[in-house]
Specification:
Layout: E1 5-10, E2 14-17, E3 39-44, E4 49-55, E5 62-64, E6 70-71, E7 76-81, E8 87-92, E9 97-103, E10 110-112, E11 118-119, E12 124-129, E13 135-140, E14 145-151, E15 158-160, E16 166-167, E17 172-177, E18 183-188, E19 193-198, E20 205-207, E21 219-224, E22 230-235, E23 240-246, E24 253-255, E25 261-262, E26 267-272, E27 278-283, E28 288-294, E29 301-303, E30 309-310
Antiparallel strand pairs: 1-2, 1-3, 3-4, 4-5, 4-6, 7-8, 8-9, 9-10, 9-11, 12-13, 13-14, 14-15, 14-16, 17-18, 18-19, 19-20, 21-22, 22-23, 23-24, 23-25, 26-27, 27-28, 28-29, 28-30
Amino acid sequence: MKRFTSILFGLASIALTACSSSGTAFNPPGHPHPLTAHFAYVVNYNCGYVSAYTINATTGALTPVAGSPFAAGTGSSGVAVDPTGKFAYVANANGGNVSAYTINATTGALTPVAGSPFAAGTGPFGVAVDSTGKFAYVANITGGDVSAYTINATTGALTAVAGSPFAAGTGPFGVAVDPTGAFAYVANNGGGVSAYTINATTGALTPVAGSPFAAGADPYGVTVDPTGKFAYVANYDSANVSAYTINATTGALTPVAGSPFAAGTGPNGVAVDPTGKFAYVTNYNSGNVSAYTINATTGALTAVAGSPFAAGNGPFGMAVGI
C-alpha cells in the first residue's frame, strides 16, 4: 500500500493531495451558509495526526491552526468534511476506525466528537460524506466492503447503518457520492466499480443492477461530476480514465463512447471542477497531471492543450474547488 498525505480544503469546496499521497476527498459545492473562514486539513499516513491550516483567501497561503496537528488514528488515510463545514472525518487504515471531529467555525481547530473513533471495517481507506450531510461512507480496502453511517447533525457522531458494512469488490479504495445523494460509487483496485442506490431515509446501500461495472486495470480514484450525469475512474495499471454516463433513475453506469481515455503513467486521483467543464487526473508514476475538457452532452474527455502538466514527485489525489 502506498504511503501518502491527504489534504482536504473544507468549507471552500477544495481538496487536493500532494507528493506521495492518496485518499482524495472533497467537500461538495453549495455550502449553505456564508463562509467566514477557509481551512485545510492534512492527514499523514505514517504519523497518525491531522494538520489544520487557515487559508489566506487572497494569496492561498496556509497558516497552521493553533493546536495543530490534532491526533487521529493509525494509518490515517482519507479525509472528508461535511457540506455544512461543521464536521471532519478521517479514515484510519491501520486502526480499523474513523476519527470524527467538530470544526471550530472561527479558528478551524478540531475537537474529537464524543465516542470517536468509530469502528469501521478492515483497512478503512477512502471516506465520503453525502451532499445532505446525513450519511458518511468508508471504503474498507482489506475487508472488501463499505461501512455506512448516519451523522448526528448536532454532534457529528457516527452510527452504523443497519446492514453495514455492505459488500463491495476486491480492494475497495475510493468512494464517491453523487451530488443528489441518490447513488454511491466505489472503485475497487482489484477490478471494477461498485454502484449503489442510497436509501434517503436510512443511508443503506443497495447494489445497482449490473454492479460492479467494468473499469480498467487497478481502478483507484472515482468521482462524479457536479451535474450527476457522469462518473470518472482513474485506472492505475492501464494508464487511462474510464468515463461513464449515469442513469438518473437506476444509477447504472454506461461507458462513454471512446472510453477509456489515455492518461499518464499510474493515474490514481481524479476530479471534476465545480463548473463541470474540466476533469483532472494525477499520474503518480509520471509526475504530472492530465487535464481534459468534458463534453457536456456525452461526457467524453478531450485533452487540454499542453496536457499533461508537470507536478511534483508522485502526485496521488486531486480535487478542484471554486
